[in-house]
Amino acid sequence: MAQQHHALSSQESYNPNHLLDILLGKMQLKNDAALSRMLEVAPPVISKIRHHRLPVGASLLIRMHEVTGMSIRDLRDLMGDRRTKYRLSDAQGRPKPEEKAAQAAAAAAAQQQQGQQQQGQGQQTNEATSSGSGTSSTGNYAH
Question: What DSSP state is assigned to residue 4?
Fold first, then answer.
């Protein structure tokens, strides 16, 4: 099986093992299984991080911060992540063309439905005032 590496692992200084080892020492834990329990993640997650098959994600970094009280910046420094900003590519966060078309169609349908409802309300008002009885079609009668 070919080993997969994530983009962050291409940084020469990236070493999540250092971070995990520091956390084991700081929290006085014996092994990765104890660390996974403390961080409330499945043990394979720690193993995959150690073998560079999974990056330390934002949610795990936040959990490490909550458990240890260390700053996110310090945790990132310990694993060798020297990036100052996380940038999204232009493609991320933008709707796909088919999603755009679906959103436009839904908006047009909603606008058309709203127009029909307003038109129907106008006809009801005209019918009630032209009947001459003075009572509305809602059933409000004076007693």
Answer: P
